[in-house]
Design goal:
This protein is of the alpha/beta class. It folds into two domains: 122 residues; 175 residues, P-loop containing nucleotide triphosphate hydrolases (Rossmann fold, 3-Layer(aba) Sandwich). 48% of the residues lie in helices and 9% in strands. It is built from 15 helices and seven strands. The chain has a five-stranded parallel β-sheet, sandwiched between helices. A two-stranded antiparallel sheet has the order 2-3. Strand 2 and strand 3 form a beta hairpin. Helix 3 crosses helix 4 and helix 5 packs parallel to helix 6. The longest helix is centred in the C-terminal third of the chain and has 17 residues.
């Protein structure tokens, strides 16, 4: 089965009329917008810029090749958003010869990957309609051949730590090495910081470019940058009115839950938004956030989303931001 990259929703609804129109769309369409919402906040933009620089350092020149690079960070920090979004910039093309070209191939790695499962996704991501082979060596050889035919420039393995710390790690090492040894493309390993330790202990891959890497960090403090991110999320929600997401008390509770990790924010925002769509609300309200928090944090003595700050408190925040 081929992995389908989401059609990300990035449009901000900056006017009352834009909000009114989007609020009239069918519920399933609005729910899809919420699930596929992508907020261009600073850590995401920095990650995409890094991938772009390592893929095509000179926009007027050729792509980079023969390198293993890394996009590392905490779980839910936004690495997959960046990888999938970047891959979506390079849809399938028809080359001058009439063949199909797949410049960037994105492979999401499952928690218990096998060579068969990974190479299946790899080949289908590079345009194969069917995949068959007799053994693991055939699978690796066929995958590299498919990437070469597809004129692939960058292969992204997302959650690559599951490949590298695995009973079949030797086979996955061989796969990555075979891809880079073509001298025709780069491999990006996206995932946890443990990937860096793996590379340090593996000179055969480390010396293929010395492993340039970017660390995707959460927003570092509950200040203006975090509020801006919450505001950016709110502007893209398909509701008639702005929500409570930028209220001072709500922002503080989201910070307490997430420590600046956007994926932990979106876990609650997505489900609260769908709840609000279901009950016909004009926006996400405090009750929706509270219900989602109550379902998640039963053992926490702190109670989330129980109050909104006053206008005076909001004014004070604006003065000190």
């Amino acid at each position: 089965m081929k992995f389908e990259i989401p059609q990300f929703h990035t449009t901000a609804f900056d006017t009352k009329e834009a909000r009114r129109k989007v609020s009239l769309l069918p519920d399933p369409d609005r729910e899809d917008m919420v699930r596929d919402l992508l907020v261009p906040f600073a850590p995401y933009e920095e990650a995409v810029a890094f991938i772009k620089r390592r893929h095509r350092p000179n926009p007027k020149g050729n792509h980079s090749r023969g390198r293993v690079i890394g996009l590392l960070g905490e779980i839910r920090a936004g690495k997959s958003y960046a990888c999938q979004s970047y891959a979506s910039f390079y849809p399938m093309e028809i080359a001058e010869t009439g063949s199909k070209r797949f410049r960037v191939v994105y492979v999401p790695v499952s928690p218990k990957p096998t060579i068969r499962s990974v190479t299946n996704l790899l080949q289908r991501g590079a345009g194969a309609h069917s995949v068959s082979y007799n053994n693991m060596d055939d699978a690796k050889d066929a995958s590299v051949s498919r990437l070469l035919r597809a004129e692939t420039e960058l292969v992204i393995f997302d959650d690559a730590q599951f490949m590298l710390f695995n009973r079949a790690a030797g086979d996955f090492f061989d796969l990555v090495k075979c891809i880079t040894d073509t001298g025709r493309m780069n491999v990006l390993l996206s995932g946890e910081r443990s990937i860096e330790e793996y590379m340090k202990q593996n000179g055969h891959l480390l010396r293929r470019g010395a492993f340039p890497k970017h660390i995707v960090k959460p927003i570092q403090s509950n200040g203006k940058a975090f509020w801006n991110m919450m505001n950016s999320v709110d502007k893209r929600l398909p509701f008639k009115s702005a929500s409570v997401l930028t209220n001072r008390c709500v922002v503080e509770d989201f910070w307490r839950i997430s420590n600046g990790i956007i994926g932990l924010v979106m876990n609650i925002v997505v489900d609260a938004a769908i709840m609000a769509i279901a009950d016909g609300s004009d926006s996400i309200e405090l009750k929706h956030l509270k219900a989602e928090a109550d379902d998640r944090f039963q053992d926490d003595t702190y109670k989330y989303f129980t109050r909104l700050s006053s206008e005076d408190e909001e004014a004070s925040l604006c003065e000190t931001a």
